[in-house]
Specification:
The protein has 13 helices and 17 strands. With 390 residues, it is α+β, with helices and mostly antiparallel strands. Residues 1-148 form the FAD-binding PCMH-type domain. Belongs to the FAD-binding oxidoreductase/transferase type 4 family.
């Protein structure tokens, strides 16, 4: 039995490789209750993040996790999704108060409570979030929500090199400026975005930034960030306070995948997903670019660089065995580099099938404990079999 939301995941999580029954959760799409004074919302798993935010706006609230796609909240919990705002609000696991879960034998459990904190028992929320439907089927979620900020400012900071851009990110984080978003878009990405979106952004390594807060505090944060950017030879920084201009900026970032798909007909997109400790990020991205150039591959590097998570977008001719081998070799190299620095093979996309082969190397003896947990919850392996574990 394989739970299915919108099918926006990237690692083959919902493909029934071993056959079975697909459980379509999309009709479980009700916002059950908004507890606005507790900053909690209860939802069914088929609710999408944009649907939820439309409802929350009536209360002056919003849900922050933004993976780009309009994914379902059940699917986002199953893969521990994150995205552009995780630098400030954390990942999906940080937003979950409680889950209602149906286990393999039909038992219904709750994994938490509606209390803001608890020291009672094992942390079952953390166990279920990211389990990709292998331990149980999520049928309801209680999630943390936030007040809509008074003011927002977006910025585009242009640099000569990726190294300068990423070093500036590290410095801004070290300064304690409470950034909402910190995204890297490299030269190749901006070339494709300009063609697809009709924009005219300078085609240099660029940081897309967003500041939120109250008016007076925001002004201080923006001025402090401008000084830091200048220290790292920022060529130009443009600020956008107008809502339409801000949306245009983030559209360019979120629609990069579509830009590459539309701009490369006949090829399939592959996206890598590594995450490293922040101080290794400049080295990781430099190493990735050198590897792409050495292999003669046309790849774009983007990422949620405020938390060390970065991606390479590749367009592959699936009829060309050499291109497929090269793409696989690049992914292996990126993952090996990340693991050698204490990072992870997947920052936000999850394991599914694509990253299963790296689990033993990343987790060591803990991998065996994970398999025992799987056996305990699902002794007959009927829940999304073949995922996470090889």
């Amino acid at each position: 039995m394989i739970p299915f939301g919108l099918g926006s995941s990237l690692e083959g999580h919902v493909i029934p490789y071993q056959g079975g029954i697909t459980l379509d959760m999309m009709r479980m799409n009700k916002v059950v209750e908004v507890l606005d004074r507790d900053f909690i919302v209860r939802v069914q798993p088929g609710v999408t993040r944009t649907q939820l935010n439309r409802e929350l706006k009536k209360y002056g609230l919003f849900f922050p996790v933004d993976p780009g796609a309009d994914a379902t909240l059940g699917g986002m919990a199953a893969t521990n999704a994150s995205g552009t705002t995780s630098v400030k609000y954390g990942v999906m696991r940080d937003q979950v108060y409680d889950l209602e879960v149906v286990l393999a034998d039909g038992t219904v459990i709750h994994t938490g409570s509606l209390a803001a904190k608890s020291s009672s028992g094992y942390h079952l929320n953390g166990l279920m979030v990211g389990s990709e439907g292998t331990l149980g089927v999520i049928t309801e979620l209680a999630l943390k929500v936030y007040g809509i900020p008074e003011a927002m400012v977006a910025a585009r900071a242009v640099f000569e090199t990726v190294r300068q851009a990423v070093d500036a990110v590290v410095a801004i984080r070290q300064a304690g400026i409470p950034m909402e978003r910190m995204e890297l878009v490299d030269k190749r990405s901006l070339q494709q975005a300009n063609r697809f979106m009709g924009t005219s952004y300078p085609e240099w390594p660029t940081l897309f930034l967003e500041f939120t807060g109250n008016e007076s505090g925001l002004k201080q944060d923006v001025n402090f960030a401008k000084d830091i950017l200048a220290e790292f030879q920022c060529k130009n920084v443009m600020f956008e306070k107008d809502e339409k201009a801000r949306h245009k900026l983030w559209d360019a970032r979120h629609k990069l995948a579509y830009a590459f798909v539309r701009g490369t007909p006949g090829k399939k997109m592959m996206v890598t997903d590594a995450c490293v400790p922040l101080h290794f990020l400049p080295e990781a991205i430099e190493d990735t670019r050198k590897t792409l150039d050495r292999m003669g591959m046309d790849g774009a590097i983007v990422g949620h660089v405020g938390d060390g998570n970065y991606h390479v977008i590749l367009m592959i001719d699936m009829g060309n065995e050499n291109e497929i081998r090269q793409a696989q070799a690049l992914n292996e190299h990126i993952v090996s580099f990340a693991l050698s620095k204490g990072g992870t093979c997947t920052g936000e996309h999850g394991v599914g099938i694509g990253k299963a082969k790296y689990q033993r190397e990343e987790h060591g003896p803990a991998y065996g404990m994970m398999k025992k947990i799987k056996d305990l919850f699902d002794p007959n392996h009927i829940l999304n079999p073949g995922k996470i574990f090889i």
